[in-house]
Amino acid sequence: MAYETIIVEIDDEVALVRLNRPEALNALNATLLGELSEALTEADRNDKVRCIVLTGSEKAFAAGADIKEMAEKSFVEVYSEDLFGAKIEAIQRIRKPIIAAVSGYALGGGCELAMVCDFIIAAENAKFGQPEINLGVVAGIGGTQRLTRFVGKSKAMDMNLTGRFMDAAEAERSGLVSRVVPTPKLIPEAMNAARKIAEKSAVATKVVKESVNRAYETTLREGLLFERRAFHSLFATDDQKEGMAAFLEKREAQFRDR
Ligand code: CO8
Q1: Cβ(108) to ligand 1 under 6 A?
Q2: Are 36 and 6 in contact (CB under 8 A)?
Q3: What does this protein do (predicted)?
Q4: Distances, alpha carbon 26 to alpha carbons 159, 209, 258, in Å
Q5: pLDDT score of 2
């Protein structure tokens, strides 16, 4: 399927999705978010895809929501259309793992989109920020919520109140990103991580995603119970038998997702 604002390549069980509005540093407009949620939903349904990498260009993952598109809207318009709500929720519902590979600017909605993914690999030139305060607004898709859970109150307040950018080293120190790699190695590194995930049982990777996300939604006690039951339930799969047998027989496991 041909898109106007994103490019999708399927490479060896990994869907590589690139945001592609270079003229606007990949600013998120309605077309881009619509195409992105559609492409990710399609990748989630496609049996050949086992993991997804979401990236932008070297200069920008995404410089935020499209200010030109939003600037003249009224409260009633953004409220009635629930600006970005349905599309972001569709992305949150994707069950296959999504890695955000961030190079350059990830600002405002761009930073928030990266945080919706399951983990972030950053290039050395990455810059994260929630500069909405400079526009007289605040973050709207997780910049005050997810960012606070990633980096804690003090840094989240700092970023949201001052609008300053965080570089890749600070983002790694703060727990916002899982690793930082030299800029030219970003895509190879993210694709390698995705291929590693693609080798696992797809049932187990979905359960990992559900379980880690549960940590953000519930108490520790309930989360631990959810995790233990999830662990127990995987004993109903052939992949558990295969994974453990392969270990004992000192060979590679051949998972079949059942
Ligand atoms: N929206 C629209 N166009 C943009 C955006 C954007 N967010 N960011 C950059 N562009 C455009 C510029 O207008 C410019 O286009 P043109 O040449 O036609 O004027 C082109 O991209 C290149 O940008 P610059 O010339 O500014 O490039 P620089 O290298 O000088 O600067 C920056 C790069 C620092 C990234 C700068 O472009 C910038 O500050 N961008 C805006 C960042 C920002 O404020 N982001 C937050 C936007 S608001 C938001 O994301 C809210 C999300 C929540 C939605 C809630 C829904 C519920």
Answers
A1: yes
A2: yes
A3: Could possibly oxidize fatty acids using specific components.
A4: 21, 27, 38
A5: 87
Q: What is residue 185's DSSP assignment? A: G
CA-to-CA separations, 191 to 52, 94, 98, 158, in angstroms, rounded? 9, 18, 11, 33
Nearest-CA residue for atom 47 of ligand 1? 64
* Contact yes or no for 184/104 (Cβ under 8 A): no
**Element at 189 (helix H, strand E):** helix 186-198
User: What is the structure's pLDDT at 89?
Assistant: 95
Rounded distance between C-alpha atoms, residue 124 and residue 179, angstroms:
10
Tokens of 25: 């540093």
Domains of the chain: 6-198 (3.90.226.10), 201-249 (1.10.12.10)
The series of mean pLDDT values per 10 residues for the chain, 258 residues long, is 94 96 98 97 97 98 98 97 94 97 98 98 98 98 97 98 98 98 98 98 97 96 98 98 98 96
Q: At 234, is the secondary structure helix, strand, or coil?
A: helix
Looking at residue 1, what is its pLDDT? 73
Give me the interface pTM, i.e. the ipTM: 0.98
132 is catalytic: yes
Closest residue by CA, ligand 1 atom 52: 109
Q: Which residues are registered as beta bridge partners of 101?
A: 55, 121
Q: Which whole-number Å values give the CA distances from 37 to 5, 83, 238, 243, in the listed order?
A: 12, 14, 32, 33
27 CA from centroid of ligand 1 (Å): 6
